[in-house]
Task: structure prediction
Amino acid sequence: MTLPDYVLAIDPAGKQENSAFCLSCLTTLNTTIMYEPLLTGIFPTIERGGIPQPDTWPFTKFRRQLKKKYPGTIDLVIERYVGRGHTGWISEHIAFTMGAWAAVWNLGAVRCIMASQWKKPLTQFGEQYDYTSANPKYANWWEDHYSYFYEADRIKRGDKHVQDACGIGYWYWGWELEVDCYPQPSDILTGD
Result:
């Protein structure tokens, strides 16, 4: 199997204006393969007002910007949005957004997954290192682990969708592509 150069993981939100993304790659630290988030952020999922716009230009533009800055193959992995009580246009628009990404993506493979596919293995990985109990205010270890993307005044706070996008990317490398890699930075391994 040929590995991609990068992975773009997307976690759709239940609000109309934001989905989170994490672009990642693998690096080597001594002899250990590390998962490294390179770029994270939030981008619009749905236009305000809830009116469907079958315009894929924003997705194409983002894809072109990534290709220019990060040449090579980029696999796309998107969590399938489950409404959990949400009905109507939000669910429909997020489904449209997933389809739009898949339609314009030509930089690598496209994989749509359910939350349980990535959360269960990552939870078990965290339990293996007893990591979740280190900071019980976070339900899942990756929420604490990737909160540094939003660290301000030494107080950790973060958008859980960005943190989930980081977790999705890590799952894709480690479980879907079966690369024996560890989260970056390596505090799980060192206990720091």
The CA atoms of residues 141 and 168 lie 13 Å apart. The helical segments are 57-69, 89-104, 115-128, 141-145, 160-176, 187-190. Residues 160-176 form the longest helix (17 residues). Strands lie at 6-12, 19-29, 32-43, 74-79, 110-113, 181-183.
